[in-house]
Amino acid sequence: MKHDNNSSTTLKIDGMHCASCQRPIEKALRETAGVKEVSVNLANREVSIESSVGSDVLVAAVAGAGFEAVVDTIQSLEESDRVSQQKFNGLIRKTILALGFGALLMAYGMYAPVTGSDWNPAHFAWLLIALITAAIMYYTGRHYFSGAFQSLKTRTATMDTLIALGTGMAWLYSTIIVLFPALVPEVARHVYFEAAVIIIGMVNLGQALEQRARGRTSQAIRRLLDLQQKTACVVRDGEELDIPIGAVVKGDMVRVKPGEQIAVDGIVMQGQTNIDESMLTGEPLPVTKGPGDEVSAGTLNKAGSVVFRATRVGADTALARIIKLVRQAQNSKPPIGRLADNIAAVFVPVVMLIALFAGLVWFNVGPEPSAVYAVVTAVTVLIIACPCALGLATPMSVMVGIGKAAEAGVLIRNGEALQTASQLSTMVLDKTGTITSGRPEVVEIDALGDQTLNSLLQLAASLEAVSEHPLAQAFMDAAALKELELSAVDSFEAIAGRGISGRIGNAQLLLGNKKLMQENDIPLESGPLQASDRMAGKARTPVFLASDGQLLAVFAIADPIKPESAAAIRRLHADGLKVVMLTGDNRHTAEAVARQVGIDEVRAEVLPEDKKNQVAELQHKGERVGMVGDGINDAPALAMANVGFAIGTGTDVAIESADITLMRGSLHGVADAIDISRATMRNIRQNLLGAFIYNSAGIPIAAGALYPLTGMLLNPIIAGTAMAFSSVTVVSNANRLRFFRFADKP
Ligand code: ADP
Ligand code: MG
What we know:
Elements lengths: L6 E7 L5 H12 L4 E7 L4 E6 L3 H10 L4 E3 L2 H38 L9 H33 L5 H21 L13 H25 L1 H7 L5 E6 L2 E6 L8 E4 L8 E6 L2 E4 L1 H4 L5 E3 L4 E2 L4 E2 L4 E7 L5 H13 L4 H31 L4 H15 L3 H20 L2 E3 L2 H7 L4 E5 H5 L5 E7 L5 H12 L5 H12 L8 E6 L3 E6 L2 E6 L1 H6 L6 H12 L3 E7 L2 E9 L6 H10 L3 E5 L4 H11 L3 E3 L7 H10 L4 E5 L5 H6 L2 E5 L12 E3 L5 H36 L3 H4 L5 H21 L10
The chain binds adenosine-5'-diphosphate and magnesium ion.
């Protein structure tokens, strides 16, 4: 639980793109009074802060460190949309300019090649062209040169380095030819100004298309953001006011009219209504809500009008937390992506060496004019080898895949969970609340003495009133239905995995499973034992009630199996997974449930503290284990599993703790998670393979490996085009994931 006066703020910080600018920002924020926690995400240039101070204070602290921060809100997303559109437009403008000028130059070069060495007007024209080219290169490709310069300062080399080096070399060589034509023989006086600008144009085009694709990928987020309201109607001092959502504070009374969206999280105080929660839980049927029920921001009020008390506002609503989680996950990398990054990091310097080597070979043993061949091959290698596609391969797919999963109500915490989920071999399912609905009911009472059924139920319910076990609710509901008055309980004790004990009046009572009775030496005769076996055979849980060493009754508790559990388990089988059920319940009951849904292996009567060991044991056998549970009772087992799936009941889910959170209660979410993670990983591998093949085939061709066969070298312009095209291919392939279909949806 979060401390009351703390809230979380997300700042977007422009210009923070390296570890060295991250440090002063972090420091400034940490030293601000009231700041609890600071976490920086370089990928999307965001800083998340837990603090008790307003966002203006935080922005000021960042400003003190010399950076400009913007509070990340809905407005700023629209803002970032605008910025992204602007960036796209700018890149396209520069692309057109560079390609247009390049085409003109190409035509002019054919019409008036650099020939003579005397400084006639035509030659002066080339000098002018050299200068204009430099200006256009600077205008359209400044970011590559400044990026290359930045990384030079930290003694690293990036893709910018390759582009800057390649185009810079082409320009420099051409300018030298123009200035000192006598250096090379007349036939060799070819200049590459047009290549330099066209390459920059092509790379810009690739980046523009990538920018466009990135913008579109946040559709999943956008859909969630659209659920957020701009204003809310609050009742303060008996007056109704429409105020901006940011001004709603905890404890405010909020009125919702029919057809309106809920603005913040809260608890209904007055009125009754039906609420459509499908956007958060995927549950298609509206849920009836009355006083005491929770409502969540973003859900839609259908018919009635209610007043609710705000319990969570701003960044703390379930909706805001979901949005934040998905955005963070979309920016995280699975291990395979880090591998690609490491390859890309050594790739660039290696390519520079290859370019240098190729140039030297052509210069020394190549045909005349060897200087030209040397420059052309070096430039072409630098340009074609640019590992843009390699760098894009993983993040693009992760972004689309995790977004797609979120649309289906599956929240994948990060790239690592995504990758591991795709590799699972065994799925362990908790029974209660996972396979079954988790809403148990007392369906039968087998009385052994002469007490009335109502008085037996009254005793059991009185004991359970203090218990937090899911079974307790069944007794409470049954007693409430019969309007029974409950008695006070003394020395209540919950006995994990067994049941409960307590005193009512002078009677010492026990309520729980057979193990509890046996351990307390309660004689069990064949009658009640048969009754309990018969109940278990019908997938019901038998619960024994004993008083002062005497068995009084056996209750049958039915927890209906969720209608879609069997179909979802069939999907898991189709995915090649082994499905294991893990439960503390009676073996016969568990086996009856297992038969109905097609479970492969049952591990019943497992004590709560042993669930974790059961998972560990499967792992020792070499299985990669996923575990699905309710996230509260099963937390240690979920943490032990390779991937923990927390199954959400409604919107009150511990989304920050599980690897994967299923917002709908359905097991189909588990199969959906497996399917989308496999599709995403397949997509990433296709991308990486494609990028790798492109680069490894491109480099030798660019270096002139085909020259002995064809007598031709690759044109640097073609290399630039191929490079841009490889990025576009990766981006398009990742976008194919957008059309992924989940098997349980039409
Ligand atoms: P699970 O969460 O897998 O259902 P638990 O370890 O919580 O398993 O419980 C195991 C068994 O212990 C239950 O199936 C039930 O028979 C008995 N039990 C535990 N707590 C209670 C309780 N409060 N009332 C009745 N029976 C209980
Ligand atoms: Mg449980």
